[in-house]
Amino acid sequence: MTPDRLQIALSELDAQSLRRARHVLDGPQGVRVTLDGKSYLSFSSNDYLGLANHPDIVRGTLLATARYGIGAGAAHLLTGHHRLHQELETELAEFVGLPAALLFSSGYMASLGVLPALLDRHGEVFEDKLNHASLVDAALLSRAKLTRYPHRDLAALEQHLAASSAKVKLIATDTVFSMDGDLASLPELLALARRHDAWLYLDDAHGFGVLGERGQGALALLGGSLKTPDDARLIYLATLGKAAGVAGAFVAGSADLIEWLVNKARTYIFTTAQPPMLAAAVSASLRVIAQDVWRRENLGDLIERLKTSLADLPWPLMPSDTPIQPLSVGGNAEALRLADGLRERGILLPAIRPPTVPHGEARLRISLSAAHTLADIDALSAALHELAAHA
């Protein structure tokens, strides 16, 4: 893209209703926010448990800041690896039931570090077509062959695995698909990985904290702790800026895997460590996640209320039992019209358009939080029904 082409390209985005713009948040994240100076009821955040402004987490962060300061000052392999980082990695591994864990600055950076550390041009990565962009980019960066299979089509995946002659095979998938809200078939994927001697990389960005009795995430769907030698092929990624309400990510797996990543994951080696206070914040968040069972129970009630109240709209909800409840619209302009109409009524709900979703599949992505109330769901329903009546 040349400099003189940029303005034309931006105009083309406008014509396709694909141009994005940032909005400025004032105050804390929550179900009610002030954006660009206006107050809204928000269904736009991934703060699924309502922890982004939880007082216990804030308190833990402030105490750690007073004691340890702000910046880590160096990469983990220099002097940046703080005791709080070390203790949190142990806590995270125990929380998800795997032998060891490693902190990263984001889920995107984790995937960009892990896949190239395990694969080269002699390997092959098998990915669901609806995987997050970070998994696709990580596969490309690894230089391995990238094979994408139709969404949740395990028969197609097995055919690709059986036909592969790669020295190293890796299956990578979202656990909860971020724009559809549905779940990968995890037990079946693990069985395929075992049968074809492949790694299984699970990106649980939208499942950690939400799934499982204590919020352990998608691994709970695999039947509990996975510490047998045969499960050493499992690589688990979760982000800490969504349900956990803080920032960063971690990868968990076998002790040998984590030791290898410490030595070979470039996005870990060549990055300044996160502030120790964030490790203290995540530690506090883990306690709330495990103790506050009511948060996940409330999410279940909210999901059922939403499905019932929106059932008669002209735009159907896509099949999902998670806090991600997409309302299928179709056209980009129509999705933007609905989002703008909701904003005029004091409700914030994003229009998701290509390339985030396939062409012709624009939607409103309703993100529920445990901090929402049934009255909030009713308000959203009333606004959408009013817009439908004037469509």
The CATH homologous superfamily of the largest domain corresponds to: Type I PLP-dependent aspartate aminotransferase-like (Major domain)
Q: Estimate the global geometry from the Cα principal axes.
A: globular
Strand order of the largest sheet: 4-10-9-8-7-5-6
Tell me the radius of gyration.
21 Å
CATH class of the largest domain: Alpha Beta
Reading the helices and strands in chain order gives HEEEHHHEHEHEHEHEEEHHHHEHEEEH
Helix share, percent: 40-55%
Mean pLDDT: 95
Biggest beta-sheet profile: 7 strands, mixed
Query: How many strands appear in the DSSP assignment?
Result: 14
Strand content: 15-25%
Under the CATH scheme, the architecture of the largest domain is: 3-Layer(aba) Sandwich
Q: How would you classify the helix and strand content by structural class? A: alpha/beta
Provide the low-confidence segments as ranges.
Answer: none
Number of domains: 2
Tally of individual helices: 14
Straight-line N-to-C gap: 39 Å
| CATH topology heading of the largest domain | Aspartate Aminotransferase, domain 2
